[in-house]
Amino acid sequence: MTQATTSAFGSNGRKSGKDQVRKLTLAAMLTAVVVVLALLGTAIKFGTFNVNLALVPIVIGAALLGVWYGAWFGFVNAMVILLSGDAAPFYTVSVAGTIVTVIAKGVLAGLVSGLVYRALERFNKYAAVVAAALVCPFVNTGIFLIGCRLFFWETLALWSQGTGAKSTFSYAIVFLVGVNFLIEVGINVILAPVIARLLGFSSNKNTSMVVYGAALAIVGLGALIFALTLLHRVAAGENPGSVENPQTRYLVMSIASGVVLLGGGALSVFGFIRGKKDAAGSAR
Fold this sequence. Notes:
- The chain has helices at residues 3-40, 55-65, 67-84, 88-91, 95-120, 125-160, 168-200, 205-235, 246-283; strands at 45-46, 49-50.
- Helix 1 (3-40) packs parallel to helix 8, helix 3 runs antiparallel to helix 5 (95-120) and helix 6 packs antiparallel against helix 7.
- It is globular.
- It has a two-stranded antiparallel sheet with strand order 1-2.
- By secondary structure, the protein is mostly helical.
- The chain is built from 9 helices and 2 strands.
- It has 2 domains: 16-31 and 203-278; 47-201, Arp2/3 complex 21 kDa subunit ARPC3.
């Protein structure tokens, strides 16, 4: 092996290692963002259930990091839903059915979003993110409805009585999905492509690190302020969002928000310092 080949191999190895660290760092922070937004969504309710705000980072993660990362973020979202008490009405009917449905819809939403993005990115990255952002809530809601049909249909028939719904299916669409689904589609299609474009489509990786580090830090700061406000209201005897175990839930949200804030800030500073070093090296 020649010296030039060895040097190139070493350089590629170092570059690959840095890229892997960069991906794992972003994946860790997006995982925290999923937790924050999933818990934050528990305080926002339209109709029967909460709005799932975590679909946005799931799409962004699937687009920037890959299909299996998207599946991971979907799994994290599912675990937050299962552990937070949001699925409590369905636990009373079928614990196994609830777990299977929630995990399946989360993982498949991330997985399919990533596959859609990978299939379309060769044509246009921005259009690919838009398509992935549109597919994600459809898969999430579609698997939920399939789970309802398999495990909870008789119970839903009882729930639908007295609501004015013409059938169990119309009850599931209007009262269980309804406005929440439309809001999730709107949020995803508007925010995910814009954020993904800002975070990942710069040709300069140092600039990308500064931008998405700063963006994540801003998200973390906003969520931290909101979570601390909720904790203050809980301490005053309120229960904002009418959730179970509000103190524990909003404390976890505060900690996860702090992780996103600190991690995003550190990543932004690291990208800035590395950019300065690269610029100094090029000048020499």
